[in-house]
Amino acid sequence: MAENYQNILNDIKGDRFSGAWVVARKAIKCMEALIKETGGSSVEELKQGIDKTAQEILKAQPGMAQLTNFFNTVLDTAESSESGGAVVLRRKLSGEVRRFYEQCTGAVARVAEFGAELIDEDSQVFVHSNSSTILEIIANACHAGKTFQVILTESRPGREGQAFAIELSKMGVACSYFVDATAAKGMERADVVLLGADSLSEVLLVNKAGSKAICLLARELVVPCYAACESSKFLPKALGQRKEKPRDPDEVWAAPPEEVTVENYYFDEISAELFTGVITEEGVLTPDEIGSRILSQKMNKRLLEMLK
Question: Which residue among 106, 135, 193, 230 is least crowded, i.e. fewest CB within 10 A of its CB?
């Protein structure tokens, strides 16, 4: 049975720990369900539903560039379909939603191919959090017959590293699991660092909290450090992550003394200069090569209003 639009929307709004591509896939499914469930609606009602959905998701999942670029495509399509009625609009929207999904899926597959080339035989690969793109890279390296080990972090407060370690075990990949505070010990053994990304601007990459410290450790110990980031996550800095507010303190410490203030953050902003390269669907590029492309992106005016 197809999933209900409202159920998918509620799932997205409550999802605190999934990676960017997982959340983006949910948003795509949500839009597909909305288009299907509003079969008898007028053009204006359908556009209002799209507008409301985009606002709610972008508010619940701020700073995720894939979502921003997805809704940029959807809103542009809705606004450009001035004739033909609701049936034509739904058909055009369904086509664009499917095209975006296929484009992203193909990009992840190509990123995985390029990323797997960075994993050498008998090497130690350092990862952080639970990036589905990094998992695809590792899977590709395994399919290529490479033998290697993974060093990964706990990744608090959600401990996404546990979920990643479980997936590695299913592949038969040996790994060493470190609490975040001992990441330096793992880095001393690492041959390469592979990190995911929620968004990449011309100057900054946004990823799971702890990523900045890992990049600085990699630089100090001269370990190559790469970010895996398909172009659907490119977003000009002016539209990216707003200053993050502290999250639920109970995730860190449920009952601290009254004098203790728990500050719980999910994301880091990292200078693009800290990365050896960025793994994209076009190959491994330098931050400078990506910058001009990001600055040339055109954004929907209604979307820009939502992001203010």
Answer: 106
279: pLDDT strictly greater than 60 = yes
Measured CA to CA, the distance from residue 298 to residue 63 in angstroms comes to: 17
Which two three-digit tokens encode residue 98? 């499917």
Alpha-carbon distance 176 to 293, whole Å? 38
pLDDT at 307: 86
How far is C-alpha 279 from the chain's CA centre? 14
Say which CATH number the domain at 283 has: 3.40.50.10470
Judge contact between 160 and 135, C-beta under 8 A. Answer: no
Residue 21 pLDDT more than 50? yes
What pLDDT does 1 receive? 37
Give the tokens for residue 38. Answer: 């509003």
Instruction: Mark out the alpha helices in the chain (DSSP H runs).
Output: 5-14, 20-37, 43-60, 65-80, 85-116, 132-143, 160-171, 183-187, 211-220, 287-295, 301-306
Check: CB of residue 77 under 8 Å from CB of residue 92: yes
Query: Does the predicted model carry a pTM greater than 0.85?
Result: yes
| One domain for residues 36 and 148 | no
Long-range CB pairs of 183-186 (<8 Å, 24+ gap) are 183/128, 183/153, 183/210, 183/213, 183/214, 183/217, 184/217, 186/126, 186/151, 186/152, 186/153
